[in-house]
Amino acid sequence: VWAGLGGLFDVVPVEDILRFERELLDFLRLETSVLSTIAETNLFKDDVQAETEEAIERFKRIFRISDGTMLIKDDPSVDPLARGIDIDQEQLMVRSSR
């Protein structure tokens, strides 16, 4: 609620907002201590708020909207092709056991 009212989700398309919220909560659980700190202290202090806002901004840089494009399109740091990095691709072959 805090992030939504604070405009932190404004760039997320309406059709992606529920998935964004679910995946953001997973990101917060795995990548930060924000949720556990709030659960343990029952407080949302300024330092926790700042950490949460920073984590949301990091998550927005890696989130793909439903059409497959990046939510934040002008950040080449998350797209290796935009940075000119060669990507090796593996090829899988299926062999018949006949």
Short structural description:
43% of the residues lie in helices and 0% in strands.
Note the beta-strand portion: under 5%
**Radius of gyration from the alpha-carbon trace, in angstroms:** 18 Å
Gross morphology is elongated
Output the number of helix runs.
Answer: 4
Order of helices and strands: HHHH
The share of residues in helices is: 40-55%
* Main sheet properties: none
Q: Mean pLDDT across all residues, rounded?
A: 86
Count of DSSP strands: 0
Q: What is the SS-derived class?
A: mainly alpha
Distance between the termini: 58 Å
Low-confidence stretches are none
Structure description:
The longest helix is centred in the first third of the chain and has 15 residues, at 17-31. The chain has helices at 2-5, 17-31, 34-41, 46-60. It is 43% helix and 0% strand. It is an all-alpha fold and 98 residues long. The mean pLDDT is 86. The termini are far apart.
